[in-house]
Specification:
- The complex is a heterodimer of chains A (about 375) and B (about 230).
- By secondary structure, chain A is α+β, with helices and mostly antiparallel strands.
- Chain A has two domains: about 1-50 and about 245-384, no CATH class; about 70-230, no CATH class.
- Helix content of chain A is about 60%, strand content about 20%.
- Chain A has a six-stranded mixed barrel with strand order 2-3-8-5-7-6, surrounded by four helices.
- The relative contact order of chain A is 0.17.
- In chain B, strands 6-7-8-3-9-10 form a six-stranded mixed β-sheet. A four-stranded antiparallel β-sheet of chain B has the order 2-1-4-5, with helices on one face.
- The two termini of chain B are about 15 Å apart.
- Classes of the chains: A alpha+beta (about 375), B alpha/beta (about 230).
- The interface between A and B is medium-sized, with 27 and 27 residues.
């Protein structure tokens, strides 16, 4: 093992320029693979995060229209005990109107438990003016609604329900979660406020669940349905409602995998062909080593090691370059002043790329290695 | 005395159109500790004979016996092992590996076979560098040495594993007459001290006359076999 490795190192060092070119060329290919892989992955995560990150991925409602859920506390405890569940909140919501002067704007009045308001929707984090809800009678509204009605923190908000109830609330904060339907159509209050406005008593309209892995939402939804074992409840998850988005993401993942595979194959072919040239260049050396008694297998190992060493150097360099590219992308690709993606290195992806490219390089070394097996020392000696 | 290498009815034909026969019914044996030369004109078949003696080439018919073992049934690995332990080569074009220093080149046969202690082998190499007068260049890259120096380093390399026999093809081709004479004195010295058998291929009769036995080959046949 030691001698073939030593010879491999020496062969690579003796042609420094050639080695640098090979390593550089392959490193560029690997850097593209890493950059594209991480970029697409980040874009997908960003898209999913934007779409479903700040909303419940599983929702439990009554299967009948306008029917509320009672005795929900045990259900919440049961759902929260699932390890795949991140947060469970409840809501007492219904349609209502905001009256201002002669105008009447339809809104969704949402009485949310703290777990739903902050744990799932992240309302407190998105407040840009005022403060969170401290007591009943206080509400938050979104930026768009605030602009539309020209009202702000400290103003009074007149809410009328379809049942004819008219209540005035005090606006204590404004939020901007970046979703038009919420920022322009929601009035958020605490759960008790929602329940009393609509006369629900202790009942609620929905249980809302955030899961740990958003792509497993359908599985978690099925678990929850089994757990609740309630025919009158309907458990839905975001994947059912977003099939087009999911199929787009899947196509993107598939094309990403194809790009990765093509790059790895081209890396392997490049290494195999370049090392085959080396077998020709080092013919004399191989012949003399074989005459001196090096065995065929050890001689061929020289080329496997060369492939492996080139692979290690090119992968290390390529991954660094790829991460550098990704970092530059996050710094410089900022349309509208904000970065398209966050610089997030997924160690599992990087390690997988490293392992695949190094393995491919060593395997590529097998082709020249098998050529060297056939070399007979006498052919070299006769050539003189 | 036991025979180190023996050829029995060896013939060599290069297949082609037409076939070319370069060796005809060669029967030849070299005793342990002997000092021999093979002479012949260019194209006489002496290099082919040398390659067959060194197990690098195989005869078309006949038998090659090295240290009492027929090589006919040996696989490539076994032959490689046999060459590494038993035979030292000095090739006409010296063939050092340019990627390695003189000392590293010399130690390659040892690194391949790994027989004996490293320290002793390095001491032995130092002694041989001294003996061949190339101690000063032993850490130089092979590519940065003169032809004569490279040839001497190749001679040292052939001796490093203390082989039973050294096969040398025009080993002093690149040396001047003074250095040639000195090199043969050293071969003699090693032959006497360690009982190493030498078979030296040369076209130079004056060199051949310094050996104990001259085998002359012409047109692929043994012409003369004179022992002193």
């Amino acid at each position: 093992m030691g001698l073939p490795l030593r010879i491999a190192v020496r062969f690579l060092r003796s042609g420094k320029g050639q080695t640098a070119l090979i390593v550089g060329g392959i490193a560029i290919a690997i850097s593209v693979q890493v950059f594209v892989g991480l970029l697409i992955d980040s874009l997908q995560s960003g898209l999913v995060e934007q779409t479903v990150g700040n909303s419940p991925q599983v929702t439990i409602r009554s299967s009948e229209e306008n029917v509320t859920i009672s005795r929900w506390e045990d259900m919440v405890t049961g759902i929260a005990s699932l390890s795949t569940v991140r947060e469970v909140g409840v809501a007492a919501s219904a349609n209502a109107f905001v009256s201002k002067g002669n105008d009447s704007v339809p809104v969704l009045f949402r009485g949310l438990s703290p777990a739903a308001a902050d744990g799932i929707y992240g309302i407190s984090e998105q407040l840009y003016q005022g403060q969170g809800i401290q007591a009943s009678g206080e509400v938050l509204i979104g930026r768009k609604l605030s602009e539309k009605l020209a009202i702000t923190v400290g103003d009074s908000l007149q809410i009328s329900t379809p049942g004819g109830t008219l209540v005035a609330y005090r606006i204590v904060g404004l939020f901007d979660v970046g979703v038009a339907a919420i920022d322009g159509g929601w009035v958020v209050a605490n759960l008790r406020t929602g329940q009393s406005l609509f006369g629900f008593g202790d009942r609620i309209t929905s249980i809302e669940v955030a899961v740990t892995d958003v792509f497993e939402a359908d599985v978690v939804a099925a678990d929850i349905a089994a757990l609740l074992n309630a025919g009158k409840l309907e458990v839905t998850n975001w994947k059912d409602d977003n099939e087009q988005l999911l199929s787009a993401l899947e196509s993107q993942s598939l094309s990403n995998n194809i790009i990765q595979a093509v790059i790895i194959i081209s890396v392997a072919i490049a290494i195999a062909s370049l090392l085959s040239v080396t077998v020709l260049q080092k013919r004399r050396q191989l012949g003399i080593l074989k005459a001196m008694g090096i065995k065929d297998r050890a001689a061929s190992l020289i080329f496997v090691f060369q492939g492996l060493l080139i692979g290690i150097m090119a992968s290390a360099l390529g991954i660094s370059l790829g991460l550098g590219l990704l970092y530059s992308f996050t710094v410089f690709a900022t349309p509208g002043g904000e970065s398209i993606i966050d610089f997030a290195v997924k160690p599992a992806f990087v390690l997988r790329s490293l392992a695949i490219s190094i393995t491919a390089s060593a395997v590529a070394g097998l082709i020249p290695a098998s050529r060297s097996l056939r070399l007979n020392p006498i052919d070299v000696i006769r050539e003189g | 005395m036991a025979q180190v290498i023996e050829l029995r009815h060896v013939e060599k034909v290069y297949r082609g159109s037409p076939d070319v026969q370069v060796l005809f019914d060669i029967n030849l044996a070299f005793e342990e500790g002997s000092f021999n030369s093979i002479v012949g004109e260019s194209g006489s078949g002496k290099s082919t004979l040398m390659n067959i003696l060194g197990t690098l080439d195989t005869p078309s018919s006949g038998e090659v016996v090295v240290s009492g073992q027929s090589i006919a049934s040996m696989g490539r690995d076994k032959l490689a092992e046999l060459r590494n332990r038993t035979i030292g080569f000095v090739f006409q074009f010296h063939y050092l590996l340019p990627e390695f220093t003189a000392m590293e080149n010399v130690l390659l046969p040892y690194a391949i076979g790994r027989q004996g202690s490293h320290r002793e082998v390095v001491e032995w190499a130092d002694e041989l560098f001294e003996l061949m007068g190339v101690s000063k260049v032993k850490h130089n890259p092979a590519s940065k040495m003169s032809g004569g120096q490279q040839q001497r380093v190749a001679i040292i390399r052939s001796l490093i594993n203390k082989p039973k026999v050294v096969l040398a093809d025009e080993p002093t081709g690149n040396l001047d007459s003074v250095n040639t004479a000195a090199a043969y004195e050293r071969f003699r010295d090693i032959n006497k001290r360690y009982g190493t058998t030498f078979v030296i291929v040369t076209h130079d009769r004056r060199i051949a006359e310094q050996t104990d036995r001259i085998v002359e080959i012409r047109d692929g046949r043994l012409l003369l076999d004179i022992s002193k």
